[in-house]
Amino acid sequence: MKTLFLAFFIAASAFASLSARESPLERFKMAGDTYAKNDFEAAKTLYESLLAENRVNAELLYNLGNTYFRLGRPGKALVYFERASRLAPNDSDIRQNISFLRQTIREPEEPFGSVVINLLSGVMPLNTLLLITSVLFFITSLTFALFMLKKKRAALYGAIGATSLLILSGGLLAVKIEHEILSRWAIVISGPAEVRNGPGALNSVGFSLSEGRKVQILSKNNEWFAISLNTEGFKGWLEKKYLEEI
Asked: pTM for this one?
């Protein structure tokens, strides 16, 4: 019996050692293969092992979102699709999956103004927009300096054009910073989740949310979050275990 146990231990250790030597790319491909074979739990484990090593990219987050969807967990799927969208805002597959899931959970449509702002600010990632705004600021300063020195009309037109682009880029940057950095957003990852009128289980229930609903976090009190639904304007308190921040 001891011999059998020792043999099993040696074999398991050898397998673990072999897995540890696999490169991140090999594990990523292995996760894709297990997903294709409908072994979604194994695929999830492999994808999450890559995330644990901070190997974060839009494709990995997108694939993990698909995996959670196939596991019947739309809330977790939306968390990863939303995170992927921040890294690759122009990816049509990511946008389509987010739209499909929101329709599936019957989330109310956002006001038209919010939709327009989100579309404009979602044209490019935050870092890219920050770089473009910085370059435009430099160009604007340079063209104004040239105009002051040379007093030429071409320099003036260049300064006006650069200023216009800088205002547009700066406005989009401000919206994106407010949405992605200053504001905190979360997804309901299990439901129905009872939203209460105060931070604690003894408070009365105001309304409930289904899994997958997106909420804005306003504040925190121990294990409770004050949340807001921007689409309906409702506010309340939700226990932390029901939420995962984007």
From this structure: 0.71
Q: Amino acid identity, residue 149?
A: L
First to last CA, the chain: 50
Q: What does the alpha-carbon distance between residue 135 and residue 120 come to, in Å, rounded to a whole number?
A: 19
Q: What is the pLDDT of residue 51?
A: 92
Q: Are 24 and 55 in contact (CB under 8 A)?
A: yes
Residue 48 contacts residue 35 (beta carbons within 8 Å): no
Q: How far apart, in whole angstroms, are the C-alpha atoms of residue 133 and residue 119?
A: 18
* Tens digit of each residue's pLDDT (9 = 90 or more) over 129-178: 888 999 999 999 888 888 888 778 887 888 889 899 999 888 888 877 87
What one-character DSSP code corresponds to residue 159?
H
Is residue 220 a contact partner of residue 235, using CB atoms and an 8 Å limit?
A: no
DSSP SS3 for 125: coil
DSSP states of 17-82:
HHHHHS-HHHHHHHHHHHHHTT-HHHHHHHHHHHHHTT---HHHHHHHHHHHHHTT-HHHHHHHHH
Other C-beta atoms within 10 Å of 121: how many? Answer: 21
Q: For the stretch 67-78, what's the b/e string if a residue is b when 16 or more beta carbons lie within 10 angstroms of its beta carbon?
A: bbbeeebbbbbb
At residue 77, what is the residue type? A
Q: Are 84 and 101 in contact (CB under 8 A)?
A: no
Per-residue pLDDT tens over the stretch 54-87? 888 999 999 999 999 999 999 999 999 999 998 8
